[in-house]
Amino acid sequence: MQSRWEELYRQKLCSADDCAKLLHNGDGIYAPLGNGQPSAIMNAIANRVRANEVKDIVYTGGVDVKAIGTLAPDIQDRMQMNSGFVGEAVRKGCQMGLYTYTSNRLGHSIEIICDHTLHVDKSVITAVVSPMDEHGFLSSGSHADLAWGSWKSGKFRDLILEVNENMPRSCGNNHFHISEVTALCENNMPLVELPDIPISKEDEIIGQYIAERVPDGACIQIGIGGTPNAVAKYLKDKKDLGVHSEMLTDSMVDLYYDGVITCAKKNFNRFKMIGSFALGSKKLYDFINNNPFVEMHCTSYVNEPYYIGLNDNFISVNATLEVDLTGQCCSESIGYKQYSGVGGQLDFVQGAWRSNGGQSFLTVYSTYKDKEGNLQSSIKPILTHGAIVTTARSEVDNIVTEYGVAHLKGNEIRKRVQDLIAIAHPDFRDQLTFESKKMCYIR
Prior knowledge:
The chain is of the alpha/beta class. The chain contains 15 helices and 24 strands. 27% of the residues lie in helices and 21% in strands. Strand 10, helix 8 (226-233) and strand 11 (242-248) form a beta-alpha-beta unit.
């Protein structure tokens, strides 16, 4: 016998084209990050814009990992694509001015969406969800980050969902009930998987520096990339690590099966691995599926520094692009060109500071090659012209290169400069010393 919820699901099920017809001129659309962005619905909306059936649509997403219709260059004169964290699919377009970017901490995103959006009552929430369970609930799955918390504010007009059988069903506060849904469609496309990123020799060294500073029982936040993978590699001899991280990764799954991650020593959400979104391989998506050990929550919860700091010995690891001699960190732009975004870096830097025994680490290779192929120092007297300060010098705890760790928090400029020069590439230390004396940072 068909249940009440199955009947309601059937009534609200329609095509992606019909979902797109719920959009009106001037509407705003808000979607989760990455795999949470509904491709079929966005493609259908793009077709309506292209056919001049609707205009002045503002679409907001982030960590854009797939090409969706609303990114099409030929319709950007009739709609606006706004990224909250510049992913690979929109990076070039943002740098060319085709799309735009909103600078905000990930932990503030839901508040900004709900309280600082013009005509919020004309906006819709959309997301990819897992198939409905017997109680009428659809899980946000791998992306609990933005949509659930925004919709639960009660300020948005419509909730339009795309059901995908490949989206895992995750535990935590991230479920929509079918009675809340305006309309939904089905689209069983594979989730985007990230390729395995190799670990360089620099990553190996940086990973060891950080891992040796992680005590047993610590609670960790790490991302993706060669350096985070190296950190995870050298954590395999640790005991009872916990996880409270905006992003869940493949390396955390490996540490769980190695018996390293148990979450048994956490002070907050004990025995639970906490995340707001998961991005990696099918191994990761399968791991979070119906796993009561893992809970996915919105970013206003996961990225709240107060909650982060409730866990003792919190270890936060994030990347930066360049650092000046006073400790200012540019983690999101190359010069004035937007490369990524603020994300949760500052949320976790501040959260680790609130933690008893907490430490935050910002990692960077000591050098990089410019567009002419010349080797440049990532530690600079002043940041590159136009570079954006992501994490202020007053917030930075530790900077790590392959030449060591510079502890900055609480240290005066003279000590900061000396310690940063010590972890710069040897070929640039004399020049950095000369410039720092010229600026009267050191004698």
